[in-house]
Amino acid sequence: MAANIQQSDFHACKSAYPSVSANQMKRILLVDNQAHVLRVMKLSLDRNGYEVDTALSADVALGMLRKQKYDVLITDNSLSKMDGQQLIDTIADQFQSRAPIMFLVSESNIELLEQWCSTIDRTECMEKPISLRYLVGRLNELFGKYESD
């Protein structure tokens, strides 16, 4: 059956996500100290038309941000050496208006973290476990919002 899919069918599927068209591919940097979490999230986001890089630590992520522009940073809060909050603070301070949209992912203190995230432009908090369907929908929604500003 899959062999009968036409090129027009592919384009019809892609049009459901207009903010993720081929000429507007968005770059995402995922940061987590668990490689299996990065693999699962990367696979899902890749399948939805995003270009995804991964980092196992905040230090590596900062180095990547200095070399490459990313539209979104998604970081776990429970990183070693520098946690997700410290990473976001550093990015907001060093990159200022060039900072990507940032998501802080945590499984604890979610209410306090949501308050903290609300103090930093274009930053949101997400509770674990993350619904990848919700995340993709949220990214599509945000890209539409910031591109029209």
Number of DSSP E strands: 5
- Written as H for each helix and E for each strand, in order along the chain, the element string is HEHEHEHEHEH
Class in CATH? Alpha Beta
The CATH architecture classification is: 3-Layer(aba) Sandwich
CATH topology: Rossmann fold
CATH superfamily name? Answer: Response regulator
Helix-residue proportion: 40-55%
Helix-strand blueprint:
Blueprint: H1 7-14, E1 27-31, H2 35-47, E2 51-55, H3 58-67, E3 72-76, H4 84-95, E4 101-106, H5 110-117, E5 123-127, H6 132-148
Parallel strand pairs: 1-2, 1-3, 3-4, 4-5
General description of the model:
This protein is of the alpha/beta class and 149 residues long. It has one domain: Rossmann fold (3-Layer(aba) Sandwich), CATH 3.40.50.2300. It has a 5-stranded parallel β-sheet, with helices on both faces. 28% of the residues are buried. The N terminus is likely disordered.
Keywords:
149 residues; alpha/beta; Rossmann fold; five-stranded parallel beta sheet; 6 helices; 5 strands; globular; disordered N terminus
Provide a short characterization of the protein structure.
The chain has helices at residues 7-14, 35-47, 58-67, 84-95, 110-117, 132-148, and strands spanning 27-31, 51-55, 72-76, 101-106, 123-127. It has 149 residues and is an alpha/beta fold.
